[in-house]
Design a protein that fits this description.
With 157 residues, the protein is an all-beta fold. The protein contains no helices and 13 strands.
Length: 157
């Protein structure tokens, strides 16, 4: 699995090695040792799956007091996945990075704690799966406006 750093330190794209033939394919979707360099002591505690139709924009969500790191991948369809840096001490505070994730390219996006997360569905529908480092906590859930001009996300619609 290739590990590619994005323009925001700490946010990574993972490109799996896919072994395929006429019968189908096999790939590793997660290997703990891949994370040893970027997220020491990582502990995923919750897996989430959602399905949305074309044109749906979800996010930008984050949690106060119980921030979540997320490893996001697409099981079917295609999305534009976005992470916004909310770490006040970071030189990239308020900056965003986006990546097209799809069932065809099989890429995954690692979004560490301290980021808001959102996505836009580009295909007819998309099924998204993500591993989280903290439990969902509705009372700590917050959102940033998807079109906040200070952030200036260039959504692909």
């Amino acid at each position: 699995m290739r590990q590619l750093e994005t323009k925001i330190p700490g946010v990574f794209v993972f490109e799996p090695t896919v072994h395929g033939d006429e019968r189908g394919y096999f790939m590793e979707s997660f290997r703990l040792s891949q994370f040893s360099d970027i997220a020491r002591d990582i502990n995923f505690v919750q897996d989430n799956q959602s399905k949305s139709r074309q044109g749906t924009l979800r996010g930008l969500h984050y949690q106060v007091n119980y921030p979540q790191g997320k490893l996001v991948r697409v099981l079917s369809g295609e999305i534009f996945d976005v992470a916004v840096d909310l770490r006040r001490s970071s030189p990239t505070f308020g900056k965003w990075v986006g990546e097209k994730l799809s069932s065809l390219n099989k890429k995954q996006l690692w979004i560490p704690e301290g980021f808001a997360h959102g996505f836009y569905v580009m295909s007819g529908e998309a099924e998204i799966f993500y591993k989280c480092t903290e439990y969902y906590s509705p009372e700590h859930d917050r959102a940033i406006l998807w079109n906040d001009p200070k952030i200036g996300i260039n959504w692909p619609y």
